[in-house]
Amino acid sequence: MQYRYIKTFILLAVVGGLVSCQEQVQKRTIVEKPNIVIFYVDDLGYGDVGCYGAKGVQTPVVDRLAAQGLRMTDAHSGASTCTPSRYSLLTGRYAFRNQAAVLPGDAPLLIDTAQITLPKLLGRAGYRSAVVGKWHLGLGNGNIDWNGSVSPGPLEIGFDYSYLLPATGDRVPTVYLENHEVVNLDPNDPISVSYGAPIGDRPLGYEHPELLRYGADRQHGETIVNGISRIGYMAGGEEALWVDEEFPEVLNQKAINFIQESKDDPFFLFYSFHDIHVPRLPNEQFQGASTMGVRGDAIAQMDWTVGQILNEIERLGLAENTLVIFTSDNGPVLNDGYDDQAVELLGDHLPGGIYRGGKYSAFEAGTRVPTIVYWPGQVQPAVSEALFTQVDLMASLSALAGVQATGSELSDSQNQLEAMLGRSAQGRKYMLEEAYTMAIRSKDWKYIAPVPADKAYPAWLKDKDVEGGMDTIPQLYHVANDPSEQVNVAAQNPEVVAELTNELNEILKDNL
Q1: How far is the CA of 162 from the CAs of 49, 305, 378, 390, 471, in angstroms?
Q2: Where is average pLDDT lowest: 96-110, 217-231, 299-313?
Q3: Which residues pair with 204 in a beta bridge?
């Protein structure tokens, strides 16, 4: 696979009576209303790309972004699962305020259409916005007719264009949704979806495992599409069914079309990956690209996907006027319902790096994710240890675009633009980490709130082989010296426990 090299911004050497490089960076004027692209990868762990220590897979495009931009080492998704993280990123609100949780495929739209959102704020500054890829924030009002106009959805919360996987790759309906319409739907073959009783005549995974390309647990063992059993039941819509292996090409083309149509005005592209979420079915050109089977191959595919979008941005001469943020919705998971050998072929690769836990977890690997900020001429190559959360993207990006927003509109989001651009080493003082219990970070400390005994370790989480971080006693870790959270020092530091408990309770009692 050929990768085009991204143009490097070269800072001229500073001599004699000139100001220092650091002063030049601090005084550099920010480009007004740059294009904004967020690459939001699914289930990509802290250690899953080369510049964060990956083994068994190469990610040259992402690595070049890190080498030429800001690589953040203490940046976090809003929560350790996908729907809550997406909600927080797009609204600037903590997910618990709306009881956001992983949604079924037929759930109503989670974000109220009256709610201020990132695309709405950017729209005030003249931005055109698009979301391409996985949605999983609900659609409609609770009784979707997939054969008609599916709304409300992304357009009703501020996006100008959307091309979606309506929920996730492992949930029905397995069709693309462009704006309000299912793509390629034959009206003579209407779609029906059920998350209760079986419908239709497509075979089911739990009844016909011999038809599956690889095995699945009972939750993922219902309607079979493309040789993979999914969550839920679906009838009809044969001509509209997606082919999983075509995701990168289909979604890239839609993203590129949007960029081309929007190149003369500021635009915001939220590229929401399906990779590396299950089911992992990489395109033929990436099969065998890693030593880790389909999970590693999906990482390689993700890297290529990023490269294709960046190539188009560069071809159009937009690179120096485009801020790129590369990150993930939560930490890693290996076995998440399908027998795809992600565990058996892992080798010595560490998906979460040195951090404990993963997707679903209150430990650090649940939300500490790869985060790279790339903007030629504006963001200088560096590594930042600033404490940062995706909840702050709303306030930070609206400030970058020159949008005047009220405190109530920004809700929980703080303006951390200086840290995000590498112009300040200071990030958050306190940061909430949402999981199946709540945790709070300061720069040096991590506190995980206790849970009742009957919630200490849910049975379903044992099947994921992820440490959930839930316990009946308070947990305190000195992450500055114990980043892997191995030693609970709550008993030895009651004053720190009291401080962080108080800060956590202040957040939880607010009703913004």
Answers
A1: 28, 18, 29, 21, 41
A2: 96-110
A3: 223
